[in-house]
Amino acid sequence: MATMGRTARSLDRRDRAAELPDGSVTLLQRPDTEPRTPTPSLWLPSAVAAPRSVPAHFSAAVAAEVIPRLRLAHAAPVVEMPAETVPDAADVEALSTLLVRHDVAGARAYVEALGQAGTAMEQIFLDLLAPSARLLGAWWASDRCDFATVTLGTMHLRRMQHDLAPRLVAGGEARLRSEAHKVLMVPLPGEQHVFGLDMVASFFRRAGWQAHVSPLRSVEELCVLVRRESYAVVGISTSATDRMDTLATAIRKLRRASRNRSVGVMVGGPAFAEHPEYVALVGADATATDARQAPVQAERLLRLLAQGD
């Protein structure tokens, strides 16, 4: 189990379209390491400010579920795409507009056109689909669209992501890695968001990992999953900043039940971007913001855990 009270360090990187960061990474350090200024989380970005109360289940499903992303430090360098191949804010708004109009064919054609113009599939995932989900949440929060319209739009977006995932995976590792590279990703029991988790899972599969995503009704259900199969890493996401005690309890129980006694635990959510020290306080090993780097950071975590054995 992670040592309680450890601090974390974050490395700032440039912002992406729709004011989403391209990613920042954090690695738990020794107690004498000073934390640096955190950046907004991409795994579960902060809920959009609204003139009215936003129900927790909707925040989890739309505005706050864009992406459960895992965060560790010392990320491998990322090759930047030429500016003309990266979707921008105009692309995000155009796709989101098609989605709320329920023009599924038009939305798919728009994405295909970007691909034919040279946009890499990972850029479509990170710089178009993810920001579009966030924008849909913002439109509902500002009363631009009603709940039903945004919910259906998000369903269309999730289906599109599901259909594009094989193409993203095909651009990665040609072979499946060993049983040691198996990751389970779940929302905190009681939360239903899986859009972001599905996206992170696609990047893991692209790197040759066996990735499983499972909604949960209870912590006991999580314990059954980790007792039945051996996972190298378990990632848990939460959109709620007031459920840290629940998360800490879930992590303690999953470690006790885990078939893999050295399981690594990663967490995601806006609270961890604002307070990286929460990672250690809930008993996790790390948190991350960039789905593209998630499998790389998971590899690093496995090496760190192996050194501690």
Walk me through the topology:
Layout: E1 8-11, E2 25-28, H1 56-61, H2 89-100, H3 104-116, H4 121-141, H5 147-170, E3 182-187, H6 195-206, E4 210-213, H7 219-228, E5 233-237, H8 244-257, E6 264-268, H9 270-274, H10 278-281, E7 286-287, H11 294-308
Parallel strand pairs: 3-4, 3-5, 5-6, 6-7
Antiparallel strand pairs: 1-2
Helix pairs in contact: 2-3, 2-4, 2-5, 4-5, 5-6, 7-8
What is the end-to-end distance? 12 Å
Q: Give the total of beta strands.
A: 7
- Could you report the average pLDDT, rounded to the nearest whole number? 77
Helix content: 40-55%
Tell me, briefly, the overall form: globular
Number of helices: 11
Stated plainly, the CATH topology is called: Rossmann fold
| Spatial arrangement of strands, main beta sheet | 4-3-5-6-7
Question: What's the SSE pattern?
Answer: EEHHHHHEHEHEHEHHEH
CATH superfamily: Cobalamin-binding domain
**Uncertain residue segments:** 1-83
The tally of structural domains comes to 1
Task: Please give the CATH class.
Answer: Alpha Beta
User: What's the story with the biggest beta sheet?
Assistant: 5 strands, parallel
Query: Structural class per helix/strand content?
Result: alpha/beta
Estimated share of beta-strand residues: 5-15%
Report the radius of gyration as a whole number of Å: 18 Å
Name given to the CATH architecture: 3-Layer(aba) Sandwich
